[in-house]
Write a structure and sequence with these properties.
By secondary structure, the chain is of the alpha/beta class. The protein contains ten helices and 14 strands.
């Protein structure tokens, strides 16, 4: 961009800056954007920019590769059931160690280095994410039954970006590994977020999964069953889009699936008319 193009971008972005000013957006951060160090720094800089513009950001992160890596170092072979990680009590402790310890604190450090006030939390803090077992087959994989959003709102009111690990709890003291998309949708609904962004390793919802140029820009939630029937929504996209639908059911105005492999995809999604992925709305 030359100086003229930069100025034009700011002018184009101004209505969206005004629209989102003092509003909350939740970003689910995962995929390649977490494993590529340059992309990771870029995402943290984007979050810092949004925060500096007066937009309140909550970052919910995954970290499956880190859980697998630590499990293997401890001599535990990761096991998956229908694409979901089987989580016994020991693996749940490893998930807490990997997500709430290693991943969470590294993201907080990167955000602080980017000039952004950030604080690391997990779903046990403030008894934020109350869970129950999703199924005995999966072990301690949590289904969220309640979100206590007070600690998140407190941190936002103090100007911090809450960085949240999807670790849940129950009344018996068990801890749960929670899918990050699911956690982000539940949190977005609980805090009254304006928008939810799910960062993925695909461009968005494609009409033809083998053609990246067949991106569907906008989807009404009411259209989702028909898209499933047509096979446009299939496989691993089904649970992700169920999270989109659930967030909107909980009162989130718009949900975006965007390509985390593309630099500044968050800024393009929030601060431009065209966007970069697929937008879901009611």
């Amino acid at each position: 961009m030359d100086k003229q193009e930069q100025a034009e971008f700011l002018i184009e972005a101004l209505p969206y800056i005004k629209k989102y000013y003092n509003k909350v957006i939740v970003i689910k951060y995962g995929g390649s954007a977490m494993t590529d160090s340059k992309l990771k720094s870029s995402v943290m800089n984007d979050v810092s920019v949004l925060s500096a513009l007066g937009i309140k950001v909550v970052l919910v992160h995954g970290g499956g590769p880190e859980i697998s890596d630590i499990s293997k170092r401890m001599g535990i072979v990761p096991r998956f059931v229908n694409g979901l990680r089987y989580t016994d009590a020991e693996t749940a402790e490893i998930a807490r160690m990997a997500l709430a310890g290693k991943v969470n604190k590294s993201l907080v450090d990167l955000l602080e280095s980017a000039g952004c006030k950030a604080v690391g939390l997990c779903g046990e803090d403030g008894h934020m994410l109350a869970c129950e077992k999703m199924s005995d087959e999966l072990g301690f994989v949590g289904r969220i039954v309640n979100v206590d959003s007070r600690i998140i709102k407190d941190m936002l009111s103090l100007g911090y970006v809450p960085v949240i690990s999807p670790i849940g709890f129950d009344a018996e003291g068990n801890i749960y590994n929670v899918n990050a998309d699911t956690a982000a949708a539940a949190i977005a609904g609980a805090i009254g977020a304006e928008s939810l962004i799910l960062m993925t390793d695909i461009k968005g919802l494609l009409e033809n999964k083998d053609n990246p140029e067949s991106l569907i820009k906008k989807v009404y939630v009411s259209d989702i069953p028909a898209l499933v029937k047509l096979g446009i929504i299939s496989g691993g996209m089904i649970p992700k889009i169920e999270c989109c639908k659930e967030a909107i059911r909980r009162g989130v105005n718009k949900v975006f699936i965007t390509d985390g492999r593309v630099y500044h995809s968050i800024l393009v999604e929030i601060l431009s008319e065209e966007g970069s992925g697929t937008m879901f709305y009611s």
